[in-house]
Each structure stands twice: as C-alpha cells, then as structure tokens.
C-alpha cells in the first residue's frame, strides 16, 4: 500500500523534503502542513540569498557535505526551472595582519571541502575583483552565487502540487503522537480533525524545538532567536560593490559578520548584524512576544552564552542602536561608502539551536524518533543546503532502522 507522509512546515526545507519524497516514491501520498497562508514566510524569505560555496564549515560535518551538494543542486534547480541565479562571487577580507591566521584557516577548510576555484588574493589583487574594497589579503570564491530562496520555494511548491502532493495552509500543528507505526498529527485549532500518517518530517524552523519537544523528543537544544537587520544602500552607490564582501568571522561570535550582499533584484544591502530577538517571528522589531522572551530568559543556556559573548554582543548592540555605527562597520571594507545613505529592509530572524551549556550548535541537527524525523537545527547555510538536506533525510535518515 502507498505510504502517507506528512511534512510540517512549508519553508524551503519542508518543501524540499516533500519534493524529494515525490521524486523517489512517485506513488506516495504527501501532505505539507503550513501554519501561514503562503509558503516561505519566515527564514526562507528573510535571508541574505547567498548560495554558499562551503568555505567555513568543518570538513566531514553535515554542513560541509550538504552545503557543497546543496549548492550544486540549487544551481541546477534554478537552471532547469528558470529561476534567477547570479554567480557574482565573494571575497572574505582581512583588514589587518591579526586576521590572517583566521583567514588562512578558512582557506584550508575551503580546500578540504573541495570548494571550486577558491584562491587567496594579495592586497593589490583585491582591487581587481572589488575595485573599492581594501584589505591586506582576501579569500576569493568566484563561484559563490545569489538567488531568491523565496522564489525557489514557490517553484518547489508548484512542483509538489503538479506531482500530486498537497499543501494545506493555515494549519498549525501542535504535536505528534505515534502508536503502532501510525503517527497522528494534532492541530492547534481544535476544530481541525486529526489525521494519521506513516511518516512525518518536522521542518518548523523557528518553532522546531517546541514542536519536537511537544511530540516527545528531547527538550534540548532549544531555539534562541537572533535577528539580523539589513539596510539597502542608495541606488546611486550600489555599483561600488560588485558582489559579496564579507569580514573574517569573529571566532568569539558564531555569525558571519555584517557584509555587503548584492541581491538578485539588483539592490545592494548591508547586513545582517546579530542580536537577541524579543520574539521568534516579530520582524518589525517593535513588538515583543512575552512567551518567546520568557523561553530564553528562563533557559540557563542563554545566560551562559550571554556571559561568554558580552564583548561581541556589545559591538552588535552598537549597530542595532545606531545606523551610523552599522554603516561604519561595513565601510571599513569599502571606505567610499562611509557616508552612504541607507534605508532599513526587513529583518531576518535566525532559528539558532543552543545547548544548555550556552554553546551554539554549529552543525545541522536532524533526529529520528520512531517514524518521525525532526530538523532541530538548520541555520545558514540551511537554504543553500535544502535540496541536499532533503536527499539526506529521505535516503539516509528515514530509512535508518
Ligand atoms: C538573517 C538570515 C540570513 C541568512 N542567510 C542565508 C544565506 O545567505 N544562505 C543560506 O543558505 N542560508 C541563509 N540563512 C539560513 C536559511 O534562511 C535557513 O537555513 C532556511 O531558510 C531554513 O528553512 P526552513 O524551511 O528550515 O525554515 P523556515 O523557512 O523558517 O520555515 C519553517 C516553516 O515552518 C512553519 N511552521 C513552524 N511551526 C509550525 C507548526 N507548528 N505547524 C505548521 N507550520 C509550522 C513556519 O510557518 C515556516 O513556514 C539565513 C537565515 C537568516 C535568518
């Protein structure tokens, strides 16, 4: 008999998993439950849009493997489905000699991860790639690209429906229960009936810890939301940057740092910074979600993380409080943009898993609990990796006894 699969979450990962099931098992019944009225309303449409080439990730880890495979699959998907893809290239720039050992470590990782065509640039060579950028040395990844993951998600949603899958919108799942190899999906709204499935994959992004824990999986790691603010720079100055200019990441703070990101629609943005968000889904930054705040304030991991990362957090806070400081951070790399005018763009909010000892979980975490599979951590490069995460879940995790 044909198996019935449920996917919880219509972000790029949930949709990719649903598509992969339909590709591998064309007779399967696949239903995606999404709490919003559209696909990709959260992280999948609030990100930098970069197809990461795999520079930073620990060789041998899931991120390294699935990012490389995912980048190839995203490129192929865009080509085959007429979705815009721009191989604009990226430089990771060291501003002083102190940063060189860290830059060299990234270069070595990129070689170990077999990132195509990466090379080091001298100070003089940086200008050949990014004429307005300064630095003592840079790592150049010409194959790093940009896309709209929101547009890809919409294409995948269309494909799922063409292949016979169903996407049910406005349906928030509260928890799952499994008995005698049948999984019941329970909905938050009591009016909605419960349905049973053979397999369920939860891909709930910012809500992933809650859905997993409510369904009997372990309580940690917990999601702690970190927002990232972007600014769009004045149209007249956007040609000062050709592609993507990134700092050497601060090892004390686990995010990539404020960078210049060319957008697939031609805009040039600066961002994202990284600071605790007073709500998992409050993109305007003006509203507070008390239960989300309560969740992280009562988590001992959050306090341990905060005490270890105070100096980096204060630096980030200065970019939150002042647009001038924000732009100044980025203009260290492109001095001609020191006084550029900018307008705020929508924030992104990262679903970052944190252990109870305060460490941020670096690698992807995908856990199997009976016939339920949970994505518990899929931060950046989670969108780049989405089609490969889907292959991994359907072909390796779900089949694992
Ligand atoms: C600021 C920022 C910049 C980033 N930049 C990049 C980048 O340049 N490149 C890259 O590769 N990655 C990047 N990422 C990471 C990338 O965006 C994520 O890894 C990816 O989008 C995760 O997709 P997802 O489907 O797992 O989660 P999401 O897109 O968050 O989707 C989860 C979905 O689940 C739904 N949901 C949640 N709970 C329930 C429930 N109970 N019932 C039903 N539905 C539910 C939500 O409504 C949502 O639609 C960035 C992320 C951020 C925040």
From TrEMBL:
Residues 5-394 form the FAD dependent oxidoreductase domain. Keywords: FAD, Flavoprotein, Oxidoreductase. InterPro entries: FAD-dep_OxRdtase (IPR006076), FAD/NAD-bd_sf (IPR036188). Signal peptide: none annotated. One of its GO terms (molecular function) is (S)-2-hydroxyglutarate dehydrogenase activity. It comes from the Bacteria. Its cofactor is FAD. SUPFAM superfamilies: FAD/NAD(P)-binding domain. Belongs to the L2HGDH family. This is FAD dependent oxidoreductase domain-containing protein. It comes from Acinetobacter rudis CIP 110305.
């Amino acid at each position: 008999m044909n198996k019935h699969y449920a996917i919880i979450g219509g972000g790029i990962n949930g949709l990719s998993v649903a598509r992969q099931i339909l590709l591998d098992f064309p007779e399967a019944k696949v239903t995606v439950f999404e709490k919003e009225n559209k696909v990709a309303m959260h992280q999948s449409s609030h990100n930098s849009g970069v197809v990461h080439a795999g520079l930073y990730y620990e060789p041998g880890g899931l991120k390294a493997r699935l990012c490389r495979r995912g980048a190839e699959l995203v490129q192929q998907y865009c080509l085959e489905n007429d979705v815009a893809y721009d191989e604009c290239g990226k430089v990771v720039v060291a501003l002083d000699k102190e940063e060189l050992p860290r830059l060299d470590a990234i270069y070595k990782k990129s070689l170990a991860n077999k990132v195509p065509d990466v090379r080091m640039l001298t100070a003089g060579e940086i200008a050949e790639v990014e004429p307005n950028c300064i630095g003592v040395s840079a790592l150049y990844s010409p194959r790093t690209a940009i896309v709209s993951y929101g547009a890809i998600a919409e294409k995948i949603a269309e494909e799922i429906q063409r292949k016979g899958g169903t996407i049910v919108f406005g349906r928030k799942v509260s928890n799952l229960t499994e008995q005698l190899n049948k999984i019941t999906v329970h909905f938050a709204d009591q009016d909605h009936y419960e349905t049973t499935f053979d397999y369920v994959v939860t891909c709930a992004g910012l809500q992933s810890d809650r859905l997993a824990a409510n369904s009997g999986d372990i309580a940690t790691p917990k999601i702690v939301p970190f927002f990232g603010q972007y600014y769009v720079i004045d149209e007249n100055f956007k040609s000062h940057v050709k592609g993507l200019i990134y700092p050497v990441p601060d090892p004390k703070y686990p995010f990539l740092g404020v960078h210049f990101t060319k957008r697939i629609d031609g805009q040039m943005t600066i961002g994202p910074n990284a600071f605790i968000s007073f709500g998992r889904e409050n993109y305007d930054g003006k509203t507070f979600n008390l239960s989300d705040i309560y969740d992280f304030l009562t988590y001992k991991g959050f306090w341990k993380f905060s005490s270890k990362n105070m100096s980096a957090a204060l630096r980030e806070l200065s970019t939150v409080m002042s647009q001038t400081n924000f732009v100044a951070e980025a203009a260290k790399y492109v001095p001609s943009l020191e006084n550029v005018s900018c307008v705020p763009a929508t924030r992104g909010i990262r679903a970052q898993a944190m252990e109870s000892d305060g460490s941020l979980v670096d690698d992807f975490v995908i856990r199997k609990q009976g016939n339920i599979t949970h994505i518990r951590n899929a931060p950046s490069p989670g969108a780049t990796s989405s089609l490969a995460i889907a292959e991994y879940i359907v072909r390796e995790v779900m089949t694992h006894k």
